[in-house]
Amino acid sequence: MSAAIGQHLLADLYGVVPALLSDAARVESAMRDAARAAGATVLFGHVHPFGDGQGVTGVLLLMESHISIHTWPEHGFAAVDVFMCGDARPELALASLAASFGPARCTQRQVPRGQPPAP
């Protein structure tokens, strides 16, 4: 069986300090640090804050695919999506994001993308 074209990590970060999850500039910086840690190339980024003390939604378009985050400060929760192909290392991006946000708990699922089905 051929190797997958890309790897998609879905992660849930629980127990994050709410102020970290409502700071759009900090979220964007953490995402850019994560892309660098993974060896990915950022093409474009946008983080949208929903208001004082509320969550943010952010996305980085990468040459290797994308990183996105949706935060709920009122729940101390962030949903993270890291999809990368080529030589980029999505697990290093997730480790960087976890270091930036310091969750009490992080769950993750890895999904190979573009993997042909078994014959």
TrEMBL record:
Residue list for modification Pyruvic acid (Ser): 65
Cofactor (UniProt): pyruvate
Keyword Lyase attributed: yes
Pathway assignment: Amine and polyamine biosynthesis; S-adenosylmethioninamine biosynthesis; S-adenosylmethioninamine from S-adenosyl-L-methionine: step 1/1
Signal peptide: none
Active site (UniProt): 65, 70, 85
Cofactor note: Binds 1 pyruvoyl group covalently per subunit.
Record field: catalytic activity: S-adenosyl-L-methionine + H(+) = S-adenosyl 3-(methylsulfanyl)propylamine + CO2
Post-translational modification: Is synthesized initially as an inactive proenzyme. Formation of the active enzyme involves a self-maturation process in which the active site pyruvoyl group is generated from an internal serine residue via an autocatalytic post-translational modification. Two non-identical subunits are generated from the proenzyme in this reaction, and the pyruvate is formed at the N-terminus of the alpha chain, which is derived from the carboxyl end of the proenzyme.
Enzymatic class: lyase
UniProt key word S-adenosyl-L-methionine: yes
Site (Cleavage (non-hydrolytic)): 64-65
EC code(s) of this entry: 4.1.1.50
Single GO MF descriptor: adenosylmethionine decarboxylase activity
Keywords, in A-Z order: Autocatalytic cleavage, Decarboxylase, Lyase, Polyamine biosynthesis, Pyruvate, S-adenosyl-L-methionine, Schiff base, Spermidine biosynthesis, Zymogen
Family listed: Belongs to the prokaryotic AdoMetDC family. Type 1 subfamily.
Entries under HAMAP family matching the protein: AdoMetDC_1
Role summary: Catalyzes the decarboxylation of S-adenosylmethionine to S-adenosylmethioninamine (dcAdoMet), the propylamine donor required for the synthesis of the polyamines spermine and spermidine from the diamine putrescine.
Subunit structure: Heterotetramer of two alpha and two beta chains arranged as a dimer of alpha/beta heterodimers.
Listed name of the protein: S-adenosylmethionine decarboxylase proenzyme
Gene name tied to this protein: speD
